[in-house]
From TrEMBL:
<dbReference type="Pfam" id="PF00995">
    <property type="entry name" value="Sec1"/>
</dbReference>
<dbReference type="InterPro" id="IPR036045">
    <property type="entry name" value="Sec1-like_sf"/>
</dbReference>
<dbReference type="InterPro" id="IPR027482">
    <property type="entry name" value="Sec1-like_dom2"/>
</dbReference>
<dbReference type="GO" id="GO:0016192">
    <property type="term" value="P:vesicle-mediated transport"/>
</dbReference>
<comment type="similarity">
    <text>Belongs to the STXBP/unc-18/SEC1 family.</text>
</comment>
<dbReference type="InterPro" id="IPR001619">
    <property type="entry name" value="Sec1-like"/>
</dbReference>
<protein>
    <recommendedName>
        <fullName>Sec1 family domain-containing protein 1</fullName>
    </recommendedName>
</protein>
Amino acid sequence: ARRNSGCDIRALDYVRGIKALTATLTTAPPTGGEASSKVHASGLEKMMSTVVEHGVKGLAQVATNFNKLILEEDKMLAVARVVNTLMDQKGSSDILERYIYLDPRKPSSDRSRANRTFRQAVVFMVGGGNYLEYQNVREHARGGKHVIYGATDICSAEDFAKQLAGLSGVPAPPTVTPTKGNGGAL
């Protein structure tokens, strides 16, 4: 119905396709018969199959981890948790050990860990950032701390839908223009 009315549902179709692919890959284990070897005859097909399989598993893992993150610690997202741990210098030792500290006031030969708390931080996401992360970092910055959040790309919901539609590979439907009737009322 929406398609017939001129709505651009390419993004929705793309998401449905990815969901169907995910369901297929997670419910149907690969079989090792003659039909399977014919399907994966070329090296390119094998490589693409592996990439898609790992990608789907990765997406499923990200979704699972995201669910865990939003339910823990007063809905503190991963980026806010990392920022707070690094600024307070207490909490998860795993986080504290994995990040390097670069202090412009120390000599370049001294890479020792900072033993003090920080009042200011810059968080920069390489790749897409979003308002939810930004707001979460701001809400969880405690005790007069100042955090600047940035990203290489922050897109609106409309831009995100356009990106998904572009990924679908389907050309955009023709634009529907309102017709004037009943004295120009729509």
